[in-house]
Specification:
- It is a multi-pass membrane protein.
- It is found in: Cell membrane.
- By secondary structure, the protein is mainly alpha-helical.
- About 70% of the residues lie in helices and about 0% in strands.
- It is built from six helices and no strands.
- The longest helix has 27 residues.
- The chain starts with a helix and ends in a 25-residue tail after the last helix.
Length: about 160
């Protein structure tokens, strides 16, 4: 299943890079996260090993594009002098999530029905996608954000133009 997920991720990454996107990174990340979460949840209903491999490959299609989008968002938001560190945090968060998810999955599989395990695996991804999608529509002050752009990072007095 990991091979199917990885193959799907490679194909998704190639397709994502070949396309020109008109939507903003926040919108894309919300959509990619939703696709990944729904695919994970659907994997629990696969009737056999072949169908599970196919759904795993479908879930993988969203992985590389979502990671690429996250890195692009960090590059846009972080000051030039902090981009390496900011991208390292994205990588750390991803690796911590995968590690924690693998541990939680192992515990769940030993005591819960497989369908529920897949649904629970997809739930945090869907929740994050919903939050990202809401963030696209309204910022904390209730002002509509332009979904085609990431907001500019806040400037500290004496540090840069403005």
């Amino acid at each position: 299943m990991l091979a199917a997920l990885s193959a799907g991720s490679a194909l998704g990454g190639l397709a994502y890079g070949a396309l020109t996107w008109r939507s903003g990174a926040r919108v894309r990340l919300a959509l990619l996260g939703s696709g990944f979460g729904v695919s994970l949840a659907a994997a629990g209903f696969a009737p056999g090993i072949g169908a599970l491999a196919a759904v795993s490959a479908l879930a993988g299609v969203f992985v590389a594009p979502a990671l690429t989008t996250a890195y692009l968002m960090v590059d846009d938001a972080a000051p030039v002098h902090a981009r390496t560190r900011a991208n390292a945090w994205v990588n750390t968060a991803f690796n911590a999530g995968v590690s924690g998810g693998a541990a939680a999955g192992g515990l769940m599989v030993s005591g819960l029905p497989l369908e529920l395990c897949f649904a629970l695996a997809g739930a945090p991804v869907l929740a994050a996608a919903v939050v990202a999608g809401l963030r696209v529509r309204v910022d904390a002050g209730g002002t509509r954000l332009d979904p085609s752009r990431s907001p500019a990072p806040p400037r500290r007095p004496g540090h840069g133009p403005g």
